[in-house]
Amino acid sequence: xxxxxQAAPAGRAGxxxxxxxxxxxxxxxxxxxxxxxxxxxxxxxxVSALGTGxxxxxxxxxxxxxxxxxxxxxxxxxxxxxxxxxxRASPTQRELQSLVDAVAGAHQSQGWQVLATYEGxxxxxxxxxxxxxxxxxxxxxxxxxxxxxxQRVDAGGRPYLVVGLPVVYGSGRGGTVLSGxxxxxxxxxxxxxxxxxAIIAAVEHATLxxxxxxxVLALLAARGVLRPVRALRGAxxxxxxxxxxxxxxxxGSDELADLSRSFNDTAAALEQSVAELRRxxxxxxxxxxxxxxxxxxxxxxxxxVTDVLDEEAPRLDGRxxxxxxxxxxxxxxxxxxVNDLMEMSRFDAGAAVLALDEFDVAESLRHTLAARGWGxxxxxxxxxxxxxxxxxxxxxxxxVVANLVGNALRHGAPPVRLSLxxxxxxxxxxxxxxxxxxxxxxxxxxxxxxIFERFYKADATRARSESSGLGLAIAAENVHLHGGRVRxxxxxxxxxxxxxxxxxxxx
Length: 507
Description:
Layout: H1 21-30, H2 33-83, H3 93-106, E1 113-118, E2 121-124, H4 136-144, E3 149-155, E4 158-172, E5 175-188, H5 190-240, H6 255-312, H7 318-348, E6 357-360, H8 361-371, E7 378-381, E8 389-392, H9 394-411, E9 416-425, E10 429-437, H10 471-481, E11 485-490, E12 496-503
Parallel strand pairs: 7-9
Antiparallel strand pairs: 1-2, 1-5, 3-4, 4-5, 6-8, 9-10, 10-12, 11-12
Helix pairs in contact: 2-3, 2-5, 5-6, 6-7, 8-9, 9-10
């Protein structure tokens, strides 16, 4: 992998904050299908129970009050009719009081309070405050109509039935004749209110019972609905882990069964496609390995010839010398590409193994730079001899450092620095930290996640390069083979930093 020679570093998009912690888990649980099903069932049950209860309450309340009202009015009319037969056409105050006392006394157990009026006369069996509940509309209706009139009123938190009854005598040519005598009844409806309260309590109990039953039914329904959903989720997770042979057991013929069948069909098609891709990938890898192996012999002969030509190039004329040098450079580039392909094929085949040896890592890094003539091009910050020893594969470490430093020299800008340090982790133990930095333009942020991929080029306009495009990929494979980690990042002040972490092993 190589980096562009000129590219401005792109801005990094920060990670989108997620909902974590107990509140986040609680919020996700509240958004779950089970909760929504339970809430939906509960709402439907509550609305249905309340609606039914309210209708039943209204009908029952109306029935109770209507029956009580009819009974009271009939009793009041019968009592007044029976007692007014002996009253004169123009009753006196004494006769009015006798009438009131008689009517109230006959229904003393019911708590009747009676008022009789005739022109300016007034007789009552209760207090004046009691009959203050008689509205003007009620009095006017009694004076104008020969029929009983009633009202329901609340006073002091208690319900009362107020009845107005005009007394009539016979009928004349114009119909029924009002005598001018009117009787009024005020009676508390505590018993009826108790019935209404009992109805309300029954409605509340029925609503709560329906709500509880709905929750139970919702849980059972959610269990039945979520069982195939959980199975689908588990199968999806297993498929994501690479188990493409996972299949769901299909029950029934509903929508969830159709979903399970669709998943099985998709999984089968995906398994077939992945198998075909793996087969083609294996063929491509074998082809690359075979071609690389077959090219090594002619390349070795070509390299020997180019060595001879390089010695003769200074004595050749200009155009011929340039052609000879071009052939030599391209042959060397082709040789590096073939060697890198051979190396990658060994990683793919699982044939790459470590030849571990304990050595001085700092001295190994100095030797890597000196062997390639980079001693004057790279600034080093290495510990003194003997201060950093580890059990590693020296050849693979040389490959890692050479690829990282060479990449920085080709695509970065001086100064290029190589540093070595150690880190002690309380759980993972000691680690070697190798860092290669430069002052170049950096790597585009979009390219950073792919920087260690094979043949990836951050600059698509640069088709050719001195490198094979496999250098960083080979470096990463060698680091991973050691059980280490490799990272690439843009430095805040400009440039790029490659860091390698390798576990320290002791013999």
